[in-house]
Design brief:
This protein has 497 residues and is an alpha/beta fold. The protein is 40% helix and 12% strand. Helix 2 runs antiparallel to helix 3, helix 7 runs antiparallel to helix 8 and helix 10 crosses helix 12. It starts with 8 loop residues before the first helix and ends in an 11-residue tail after the last helix. The model has no long low-confidence stretch (mean pLDDT 97). The protein binds glutamine (GLN). The site of glutamine (GLN) has 13 residues, from loops.
Length: 497
């Protein structure tokens, strides 16, 4: 029988529709793979075999009854542990929510259920999605399947690693500053941060509400498009949800035509501080784009130089207020509730015990930045920078259809290497953060291995607000050209687990 774990979601969909395999068999193949390798990878925080097989059986029964099935029916998926799933653990990588079971489903989960996708489990992440390496998870790091001593990116390292380790063909991530795209880049997988408001935030545990966006992750551009279509669309439960029809991402991914497309190479996002091998692969991808008929020009977005600084004021400010609800009174952990302590003391003890060092650092920065007397100087200035970044994007998109850059400045670094240096960690997201600040959309896809370390390099494609289909057109065409060159998927080059 075909090696089910090596199939794309599209291939699994075809096999399932033809009746060549059952959703049950597909789920078993992936659960067995998880059982075999996840002790070493640690992509998952929680896998419920019984639950998953019961879901798969329901999907098989529905198909047997002759009901109309969606294209992803019976295809397994790994869900980032920041999305609420009824009755299942939803820890956000934090001790604070260790024993919490949400009483409701996130809209993304509802949509996945409606599409008959089979959820395999919840994936590891940096605590409350703060980080770029998944090392800030309270439950231990995830290991990069390319080299188990290296990080898989973050915060959604578990989702990306599950794809690269062939534990799941599809995964959901969330991206507030790069947490879908940077993990995709360093694991040789594909990830998309949709336009802000394109995918509902209802049931997504908030980090920074004006930046957060859930999105699709997979091993191919087409699979990513299929998942994008399953989760995108208007939701009255999210006040910033976009009420517009969703463009056909799958058709865009299949178009394979770049003639006349104007691609802007962002000067500020590809120069200093980028690893030589990352730059080399990027330059080759640029040349490939030109040979495919695209018109590549250099554009300048001068305000991007201030994006990181603005982000690390806006994000902690919003996070400090969003995370105030974890006070030991309503959700999850409660410490010091022994009759000896006052309410204030219980809150303090709970927060000290429940939050890790990075979360505490950001709550303190955010609280300071929002405090009276400093608000205008810090938060206010950061918001002005945000406007300038939006203007830079708007100007660039008057002459370009999409923009490109390397996704991350380096390939996957060693576990522990940047743990004690917050600034070094923050710099991983230098190229992804402007997109979140402006609310538009971005994709990362693999463009080869860096010659110096043999690790995957990602290219970022950026499109305007509601131009998500352009990501798939530009990404699908590049991926097809690269696959034709290589003769195989890049993950075929990863060492066997
Ligand atoms: N790495 C970035 C941060 O630490 C992005 C996080 C995210 O996108 N959730 O904030």
């Amino acid at each position: 029988m075909t090696d089910l774990i090596k199939q794309t979601a599209r291939q699994l969909s075809d096999l399932l529709r033809a009746g060549d395999v059952s959703a049950h068999e597909v789920a078993v193949a992936h659960l067995d793979r998880i059982a075999a390798v996840d002790e070493r990878v640690h992509a998952f925080l929680h896998v419920d075999r019984e639950y998953t097989l019961a879901r798969a059986d329901q999907v098989d029964a529905k198909r047997a009854s002759g009901a109309a099935m969606g294209v992803l029916a019976g295809v397994p998926l790994a869900l980032k542990d920041v999305l609420a799933m009824k009755g299942q653990p939803t820890t956000c990588g934090s001790r604070m929510l260790e024993h919490w079971r949400p009483p409701y489903n996130a809209t993304v989960v509802e949509r996945l259920h409606a599409a008959d996708v089979v959820i395999l489990g919840k994936t590891n992440m940096d605590e409350f999605a703060m980080g770029s390496s998944t090392e800030f998870s309270a439950y231990g790091p995830t290991h990069n399947p390319w080299d188990l001593d290296r990080i898989p990116g973050g915060s959604g390292g578990g989702s990306a690693a599950s794809l690269a380790a062939f534990e799941a063909p599809l995964a959901i991530g969330t991206d507030t500053g790069g947490s879908i795209r940077q993990p995709a880049a360093v694991t040789g997988t594909v990830g998309v941060k949709p336009t802000y408001g394109a995918v509902s935030r209802y049931g997504l545990v908030a980090l920074a509400s004006s930046l957060d966006q859930a999105g699709p992750c997979a091993r191919t551009v087409e699979d990513t498009a299929l998942l994008h279509m399953a989760i995108a669309g208007y939701d009255p439960k999210d006040s910033t949800s976009i009420n517009q029809p969703v463009a056909d991402m799958v058709a865009a991914a299949q178009r394979r035509d770049l003639r006349g497309m104007r691609i802007g190479l962002v000067k500020e996002l590809s120069g200093q501080g980028f690893q030589a091998g990352v730059r080399q692969r990027f330059e080759e991808a640029v040349a490939l784009y030109t040979s495919l008929g695209a018109d590549v020009v250099e554009v300048s977005c001068p305000s991007f130089d201030y994006a990181l600084a603005a982000y690390y004021l806006i994000l902690p400010s919003e996070a400090s207020s969003n995370l105030a609800k974890f006070d030991g009174m309503r959700y999850g952990l409660r410490s010091g509730d022994d009759g000896e302590h006052s309410v204030e003391q219980v809150m303090g003890l709970t927060r000290a015990a429940g939050f890790g060092p990075e979360v505490i650092r950001r709550i303190m920065i955010g609280t300071y930045a929002l405090s009276s007397g400093y608000y205008d100087a810090y938060y206010g200035s950061a918001q002005k920078v945000r406007t300038l970044i939006q203007r830079d994007f708007n100007a660039a998109f008057t002459t370009c259809d999409v923009l490109i850059s390397p996704t991350a400045p380096t390939t996957a670094f060693k576990i522990g290497e940047k743990l004690d240096d917050p600034l070094a960690m923050y710099l991983n997201d230098i190229a992804t953060i402007p997109v979140n600040l402006a609310g538009n959309c971005g994709m990362s896809l693999p463009i080869g291995l860096a010659p110096e370390d043999g690790l995957p390099v990602g290219l970022q494609i950026i499109a305007p607000i509601n131009g998500d289909d352009r990501l798939y057109q530009a990404g699908g065409a590049l991926e097809a050209a690269l696959h034709a060159q290589w003769g195989h998927h890049i993950l075929e080059e990863a060492p066997a687990l």
